[in-house]
Fold these 2 entries.
Entry 1:
Amino acid sequence: MRRAKAGNIHLSYVEHGHGDDVVLAIHGNPGCVDWLDLVLPLLPPTLRVIAVECRGCGDSEKPEPAHDYSNYSMATHAVDMIALLDVLGIARCHLYGHSTGGMICSHMLVAQPARFRKVLLLDPVTPFGLRLAPGHIGVLSAMKADRNAAFAGLATAMPTLFRAESLAAGEPQFADTASTSQRRLFGRIVDMTRGLSDGIWFGTPHDLAREWDSQALAARMPVMTHEHLVLFGKLDYWIPRDDVERMVAQLPNARLEVFPYVGHSMSVEIPLLLARIFIDFFMARSKAAPIRPVHPVHGVLQ
């Protein structure tokens, strides 16, 4: 793990590969760089990926949240990311964003549009923000306070790793098809939530609700002319599909691929598929062909 001072914050990051094809990868919430652990080893060394941990997450600095959580807003995270690119001397790059990382990418596109090339979004929080469900903060409070609650909550982000009946009962048990590496990674992801800042636990939903009310970022979608490929798992229980479809319809240059056998977290559920999409999308010199879905057990569907 490397660390760099980006503006007024120290951010941790991991780096894979080298070359002219550079991708800045931004995780979701509650997250860390570990969510890409099964994907990065599958990528060619000529694709340079910089996976960064947002402020308040992982080994990055965790400043005390402001009273209004303004120092943990999506716009603030975007400023951090751009500052990291400056420090690393990266003039132009591609972007990958998962979940809330998608909204951070959108803020970056608005801030410095000429700096970015292609954009790959995995089950993103859209520029519309999120309308919080009743009891959402209570669920997050329980997840923060208790590891078992965090385990159960995060299991819903990766439903294909668990037996469906155990998820419904609120006591998730791994499915027989979940590999040892997936089980170990999931446990580590849960453990990493123990060190998250309150700015992540509570500042993130506060800001996403504020974005929903203002629609200020959504109004800027017409200027996000970059080529977007948006991936969505049909079993995603976290992000409303209607929001994603509406975003793709309003972006000037976007297409949507929906995958039937995956939830919110393809990077952990079917890492080989996400690795192939990374390669096809970021290393191709023209738009990639539609991606064939991959069954988590039986491979590529015909």
Entry 2:
Amino acid sequence: MTLTIYLVCGLLALLCAAVAVYMGKRASELWKTQAQFKQKGVAVKGVVDRREKKELPAANGRTISQYFVSYHYDYQGQTHTGTAPVTEKHYNDWFEGSHIDVIVLPGRPTMSRLAGDFSATGFLLGLVIGSATLGLGAIALIVIAIVFTR
């Protein structure tokens, strides 16, 4: 019985730790990209090409709405495209043909963000909190295994 508890808790702790490391690595990459946009980003004008609303199933038969816009912009004589999540307000305010502000990385003009885009920051924060929570979960599982085997 003791060996089973150690094995189950150990495997769960290992899984939590692996996911925490992956999420931490992903958060680090996003952090670097976000810093590049803040330091080196160049503002250009873009145009909304398409709007999209996705309905995702939630608890109790409800749905959660996600809003996206696809857009194009010109940088140094070339046209590039992008798609980004937006707030419901921006989704309702912007129509096909609406002019928007886009931030572009000069060395990588295919990478863009909408001006004032804070979704990447929120996602990054979620990754950091999630990876810390999973790391703490791994430690808790090890402690539980030790307590229950005594």
